[in-house]
Amino acid sequence: EAGVAQSPRYKIIEKRQSVAFWCNPISGHATLYWYQQILGQGPKLLIQFQNNGVVDDSQLPKDRFSAERLKGVDSTLKIQPAKLEDSAVYLCASSLYPGPPGTLHFGNGTRLTVT
Amino acid sequence: GEDVEQSLFLSVREGDSSVINCTYTDSSSTYLYWYKQEPGAGLQLLTYIFSNMDMKQDQRLTVLLNKKDKHLSLRIADTQTGDSAIYFCAESIMNTDKLIFGTGTRLQVFP
Questions:
Q1: Chain A contact set for B33 (CB, 8 A)
Q2: What's the rounded Cα separation, in Å, for the pair A103 and A100?
Q3: Beta carbons of A42 and B103 less than 8 Å apart
Q4: pLDDT of amino acid B20
Q5: Which of B:7-46 have CB within 8 Å of A?
Q6: What is the pairing mode between strands B105-110 and B9-13?
Q7: Interface contacts A/B by beta carbons within 8 Å
Q8: Residue B1: per-residue pLDDT
């Protein structure tokens, strides 16, 4: 089975610019997550989708971050405008629903550097 | 609030056993997880344990759970250089899909 695909792999932008990340989950996985992993820390959930509906976005900085999952498959995460503290790896994950909670399949992530 | 704590580093000799420890806070967690992250890659689920279990063994991996102390450990037998990675402990919040990850333990295996 193909894994979770993410692009781009790396992105360098200046502060106040905008950036978008793309994720294609494993086929058939209804649940999709975006995590932010700052260097030296564990991943932190930004937003969780069930099909194309938002389940949890309580930790998403909504003044600058937005995410969508049109048609319940691919998803994009956008940051506008970016800040220095947004430098991190952005991980997309997907899971079957229903399934054992927490059994997530992760992509390789997008490493964002904001200068 | 929820918090998962791990030691930052562990260094072992190839062939020895590794034990990575974790403490968590949410006593309602039904499942607890161990994920592995290799350089430049996403996280990979290694194993998970149901909260009514004390131990789970899967080939070279042994997970021990002490619910009273909210302590979870991962033992890797016969550690190999390919086991060098960052290991994350995670708990599920209120039995949902929302995971709280620890800071990760970097395991270094030397010959």
A1: 102-103
A2: 6
A3: yes
A4: 98
A5: 30-31, 33, 40-45
A6: parallel
A7: 60
A8: 53
Closest chain A residue to B47, measured at CA: A103
pLDDT tens digits, chain B, 111 residues: what are they?
A: 568 999 999 999 999 999 999 999 877 778 899 999 999 888 999 999 988 899 999 999 999 999 999 999 999 999 999 999 999 999 887 767 788 999 999 999 999
pLDDT at B23: 95
Q: What is the 8-class DSSP label of residue A52?
A: T
- The rounded distance, in Å, linking the Cα atoms of B110 and B16 is 10
Residue type at position A70: L
CA dist B32 and B52 (Å) reads: 11
Which residue numbers in chain A have pLDDT < 50? none
Look up residue A31 and give its amino acid.
T
Residues 6 or more apart whose Cβ sits within 8 Å of residue B95 = A101, B28, B29, B30, B31
* Smallest CA–CA distance from A102 into chain B, residue: B97
CB A92 within 8 A of CB A7: no
Residue type, position A97, single letter: Y
Please list the alpha-helical segments (H only) found in chain B: none
Beta-bridged to residue B62, according to DSSP, are B57, B75
